[in-house]
Amino acid sequence: MAKADIAELIANILKEFLPANGLELYKVEYVKEDGERYLRVYIEKPEPAPGEPETYVGSDDCALVSEYLSGELDRLDPIEENYYLEVSSPGMDREFIRDDDYRRFAGRQIDITLKQAFEGRKAFEEVTLIGLEDAGDTAGTDSEASAKTLVIEETPIIPPPKKGMKPKIGETVRRSIPLQQVKTVRLSVIF
Question: Which pLDDT does position 147 carry in this prediction?
Answer without folding.
Answer: 86
